[in-house]
Each structure stands twice: as C-alpha cells, then as structure tokens.
Design brief:
The protein is mainly β and 117 residues long. Helix content is 0%, strand content 57%.
Length: 117
C-alpha cells in the first residue's frame, strides 16, 4: 500500500500563487508516475499535471500550461505543484496521485484550492 498526504491548499486572490506538496509513504518501489488531479462538484476528476519517475518527463493539462509546474524530490518521496497566475477556474479540490506497476492507483485525501477576490 501507498499513503499520500497533501498539504498547501488554501484561498488566494486571482493572480496569486500556491504550492501544493504531497508526501508519499509505504511500498513505493513500483511507483512509476505521480501527479495531481483536480475535481469540482458535478464534474469528473481531471488531470492537472504528472511526471514519470524514470525519465522525469512531464505532462500538463492545456489549461495550466505555462502557469503550473510539477516537480519531485525523490529523496523525500515528495511531489510538488507550483501554481502561479491562479484563476477562479482553478478552484477545485486537488488530489495527489501515484500509479504503480500492476497497475495500481493511489490517491490522497484532497486539498481545497479556492481562487476568489
């Protein structure tokens, strides 16, 4: 099993920044990618950004390209999402996600991000 704990959510004004963190623990040896998804009420959960463990290659949703940056710290088993130039439409619950060979997916508990003036 893999446990994921997010932090860093909150409320900021449009144009502001937030940095989300996710710390992973447990059986991490088979994890090959990790990232962030988000969800608003009444809509499906959508990919925000993800990064592959081996190559470090990244993928972003079109709506966040150029504003969000995903990174990881392998020594700390952590993945981060730097969110800049935030917009009201970025308001959502953000979930940390990891995937292991199998495949097996793991999710954090979610952290609320609210962008409002």
């Amino acid at each position: 099993q893999v446990q994921l704990v997010e932090s860093g959510g909150g409320s900021v004004q449009p144009g502001g920044s937030l940095r989300l963190s996710c710390l992973a623990s447990g059986r991490l040896f088979s994890i090959y990618a990790m990232g962030w998804y988000r969800q608003v009420p009444g809509k499906e959960r959508e990919l925000v950004a993800r990064i592959r463990v081996g190559s470090g290659s990244t993928e972003y949703a079109d709506s966040v390209k150029g504003r969000f940056t995903i990174s990881r710290d392998s020594a700390k088993n952590a993945v981060f999402l730097q969110m800049d130039s935030l917009r009201p439409e970025d308001t959502a619950v953000y979930y940390c996600w990891h995937i292991a060979y199998g495949p097996e997916e793991y999710w954090g508990q979610g952290t609320q991000v609210t962008i409002s003036s």
